[in-house]
Amino acid sequence: MTTADTATRTLVVERMMQHPPEKIWRALTQGPLLEEWLMKNDFQPVVGHRFNLRSDPMPQWDGVIDCEVLAIEPNKRLAYTWAALGLESVVTFTLTPEKGGTLLRMEQSGFRQGSENDRYYQGANYGWQKFLGNLEQVLAKLS
Fold this sequence. Notes:
The chain is α+β, with helices and mostly antiparallel strands. The chain has a single domain, classed as START domain (Alpha-D-Glucose-1,6-Bisphosphate, Chain A, domain 4), CATH 3.30.530. It contains 4 helices and 7 strands, in the order αβααββββββα. A hairpin with a 2-residue loop joins strand 6 and strand 7. The longest helix is centred in the last third of the chain and has 27 residues, at 115-141. The radius of gyration is 15 Å and the shape is globular.
């Protein structure tokens, strides 16, 4: 394997949330809640399920992200593929109970090195900050 084959970056965003893992898990895995903070979807929490995340189309992007569920560990870990704009990556959410809440870790791996891919990495960083802020707002409304 050459260096070019292994030269990838991983984006990690961590947030301490004042909610139990079970509540966060609901927002990560229930389609209507997922739509409130991320995007329209046909998600099902079943390993192997292929689904789409859908946003408004933009120039050079149809607004569709193709995904497949890779791992489900209720209240602990969720992973799925994320394919859009020629980029294929893996998004993994890990929930770790902490005193007073849960540490949520979002990891998106598979960003290849290079100027165009660096732009995708920066865009993903911006997007995940926004999405996780939306998630916190959704969690605040859930009972």
